[in-house]
Design brief:
The structure holds 2 protein chains of 2 kinds. By secondary structure, chain A is mostly beta strands. Helices cover 0% and strands 56% of the residues of chain A. Chain A contains no helices and 11 strands. In chain A, strand 5 and strand 6 form a beta hairpin. By secondary structure, chain B is an all-beta fold. Chain B contains no helices and 11 strands. The model of chain B has no long low-confidence stretch (mean pLDDT 97). Classes of the chains: A mainly beta, B mainly beta. At the A-B interface, strand 5 and strand 10 of A face strand 4, strand 5, strand 9 and strand 10 of B.
């Protein structure tokens, strides 16, 4: 069974840093691209960042570029999101999601339960 | 950035009704659109990928269609478990962008 379990969230002051982790199991982690997607309280979904299976391709939303860094450790089956210079608008539930590529289409077929990040003084 | 605009933002429906949700891209994205369903307190679930391909296990009452800028998700026979927020996502260009969502409620 595919499982994605996020951790590392919490309450952090503006300007500080936080690192999220997503532990994957039930599939060959090194074969899949992975993504972070967030959802502010009561709001919609926002794609944050993606990383290819071998870390060769990395992309970010403009809202986090230069502040967030996505990375992965295939030996540990773990995806990371290092967040720096946090702002109140980064307050959200952060999901990690597996990316599948099939018949020319990309999609997020498995999602974690999410981890809450609250940026407040 | 490709902006995805969903309409309506909310809709009151009845069980058994046919429901049509719309998603419009600010520029052509080909067929590079997915649809996700999010029920309260749950993570989003994939319904449709590549504009019209139903994901494994998704009931056949869900149908996706469209190409270019205009996309539609149709629920042919609304069931209570379909009360949720639905999001479209384009992956034709970076950044990937979600629509703002359409919330389905009971009349």
């Amino acid at each position: 069974e595919v499982q994605l379990v996020e951790s590392g969230g919490g309450l952090v002051q503006p300007g500080r840093s936080l690192k999220l982790s997503c532990l994957a199991s039930g599939f060959t982690f090194s074969n899949y691209g992975m993504n972070w997607i967030r959802q502010a309280p009561g709001k919609g979904l926002e794609w944050v960042a993606s990383i290819s299976s071998s870390s060769s391709y990395i992309y970010y939303a403009d809202t986090v570029k230069g502040r967030f860094t996505i990375s992965r450790d295939n030996a540990k089956n773990t995806l990371y999101l290092q967040m720096t210079s946090l702002r109140s608008e980064d307050t959200a539930l952060y999901y990690c999601a597996r990316e599948e590529f099939n018949y020319g289409s990309y999609y997020f077929d498995y999602w974690g339960q999410g981890v809450m990040v609250t940026v407040s003084s | 950035e490709t902006v995805m605009t969903q309409s309506p933002t909310s809709m009151s429906t009845s069980i058994g009704e046919r429901v049509t949700l719309n998603c419009k891209a600010s520029q052509s994205v080909g067929i590079n659109v997915d649809w996700y369903q999010q029920t309260p307190g749950q993570s989003p679930k994939l319904l449709i990928y590549g504009a019209s391909n139903r994901h494994t296990g998704v009931p056949d009452r869900f149908t996706g269609s469209g190409f270019g800028r205009d996309f539609t998700l149709t629920i042919s026979n609304m069931e209570a478990e379909d009360l949720a927020v639905y999001y479209c996502l384009q992956y034709g260009s970076i950044p990937r962008t979600f629509g703002g969502g359409t919330k389905l409620e009971l009349k």
